[in-house]
Write a structure and sequence with these properties.
99 residues; 2 domains; mainly alpha
């Protein structure tokens, strides 16, 4: 497979890969009825005539596309808040140890 997935291949197979995938979860606001779910990337690749790498890439990008943009922003904010609290606590603890 080339370094990048061809957008035409992605667009052509995106829904089929999601419909067959093990990894699709039900996100808030997104519900899908799937007829042939729970296949591995290898099994999907065999059925669609693609490489396992192509199916993995399609699935990964498609799953990310399912997430609303504000979910990514909230996740980023939460990670920053937790990191700031962790390092603040660590710095506070280190300064107490020096006293």
């Amino acid at each position: 497979m080339d370094k990048y997935l061809d957008p035409e291949i992605y667009n052509k197979y995106k829904q089929q890969v999601l419909d067959m995938s093990l990894a699709v979860q039900y996100y808030v606001g997104v519900e899908q009825q799937r007829e042939s779910s729970c296949l591995s990337d290898g099994e999907i690749a065999q059925r669609l005539g693609l490489s396992v790498q192509e199916v993995s890439e399609i699935r990964t990008i498609a799953e990310n596309d399912l997430m609303p943009a504000d979910t990514w922003m909230k996740s980023d904010e939460e990670k920053r808040r937790k990191a700031k609290a962790f390092f603040s606590k660590r710095l506070h603890s280190a300064s107490e140890d020096q006293d």
